[in-house]
């Protein structure tokens, strides 16, 4: 991909209300990074700075339990960002790991430029608060799904992956080609259980293999479970 410019920065919800001068200021000394799949960009507890914007690809945000088990907090795709929580807390300490699930292109903004703009612009600060509210709602949905049956959790994971694949929140978008063990970890299920459910979903025609990858083909099971609007 080419260079990252102010007009593209405006495509991120957090920045869409800013003037061109503000956008150009935010891009001062930015860096564009190419990241391979499975690379860990951020380590929980690290002391470093920078706000990362996802230009393409999908990441998972996770934490590890005291027993070393992975808990996936969120999935993020093109047009989303991570690293802002440490900025807002003001301690430069990362609160979770961030791992690339697919090849990734990210743009890294300097914290100082973002912080300066937050201090100057009330509207920008409000948009940042709204972003945190959306993140909290998403975390609440993910937490509530932990009490659902395994089929619902796998379907919710496939839907979220489709949304993150960069096709504009389309539930029928191609799903990134991930190992079943990765899908199981995101859903919070055993690998064997996830494999069995994926086999059932294929046999029922709920998911299909295409030239572009796995896709949801029948959305009715998701609607019945309340995962999609009627």
Q: Tally the beta strands.
A: 10
Number of helices: 9
Structural Rg = 18 Å
Arithmetic mean of pLDDT: 91
- Strand pairing plus helix content: what structural class? alpha+beta
What does this structure look like?
The longest helix is centred in the middle third of the chain and has 24 residues, at 122-145. Helices cover 40% and strands 20% of the residues. It has 230 residues and is of the alpha+beta class. The chain is built from nine helices and ten strands. The chain is globular, with a radius of gyration of 18 Å. The strands form three sheets. Strands 1-8-3-6 form a four-stranded antiparallel β-sheet. A hairpin with a 5-residue loop joins β4 (59-64) and β5 (70-76).
TL;DR of this structure?
With 230 residues, the protein is of the alpha+beta class. It is 40% helix and 20% strand. It has helices at residues 6-9, 20-26, 84-89, 111-120, 122-145, 150-164, 180-187, 191-203, 220-224; strands at residues 31-35, 40-42, 51-56, 59-64, 70-76, 81-82, 97-100, 104-109, 207-210, 213-216.
List the helices and strands and how they pair.
Elements: H1 6-9, H2 20-26, E1 31-35, E2 40-42, E3 51-56, E4 59-64, E5 70-76, E6 81-82, H3 84-89, E7 97-100, E8 104-109, H4 111-120, H5 122-145, H6 150-164, H7 180-187, H8 191-203, E9 207-210, E10 213-216, H9 220-224
Helix pairs in contact: 4-5, 6-7, 7-8
